Amino acid sequence: MKKCTYILFFLLISASLSSQINMVSKKIFLDSLNRETTSPDFSYTRIITNYSQKSARYVVTDFYKNGRKKMTGATLDRDILKRDGEFICYYKNGAKESVIDYVNDQKSGKEINWYENQSKKSEKKNSWNPQTKKSQTLILNYWTKDKEQTVTDGNGEYEETDGFVTQKGEIKNGLKQGAWLGNDLVKNISFVDNYEKGILTSGVSIDKNNVKTSYSSLSEKQLGKKVVKLK
To answer: Quick one: which of 3, 18, 99, 188 has the most CB atoms within 10 Å?
Structure first.
C-alpha cells in the first residue's frame, strides 16, 4: 500500500513539474521560410524558454529536425522574432555559421561568419541609426573557401551570396566601390551595379529574353521600371 502511495506521489510531482515547464516554455513548428506551421512536414522547431513570464527579453532557440541547434539568442517580443543582443547561428552539422550583434532587430556591432569547415569567412561591422532608419555594413576582412584573404582592413576583392543572388566586386574602406557583377538565379537575370562609397548609383540587368532594365537607385532596381529591349 505504501509502495502504491509513493508511486502515485511521484507521478503527481512529475506531472506538476512537467506542467510548470510547459507553462514557462513554448514550442512552435516552422516551415522552410520560418513561418509557423501545424504541418507534420515542418523544417524547424522553436523554443521560447521563458514564454509565460513577463520580460523585456525572451530567450529563443531554433532546432533542426536532427535536434541540433540552428540559432539561439534573445527576442524583444515573445510572439514575433525581434532580435536583440548576440545571435549565434549554426550549420546543420552543428558547426558555427555566424555570430551577429543586434539592437532592436537591426544588425549593430560585430558580425563574424564561418564556412562549414569552420575556416573563417568574413569579419564585418554593422551600424544602425534609429533616427534616420539607415543601416551600414563595413566589410573588414574576407577569406575565400581556399583560405585566401582577399579583403584586408576594409580593402580588396569581395564575393557574396545572399540566398540565390551572387555578386562580386571591389571593397574600399569597407564599402562597395565601382562595378559589381552579379546573378539572380530566381529572377534568372545577370546585372552590373555601380557603387560610390557603398551607395548604388546606377545599374543594368539583363533577363533570359535579353531585355535590359536600367536603374539609378536600389528602389528603382527593385521596381524594375526602366526597360529597354536589346538589339
So the answer is: 99
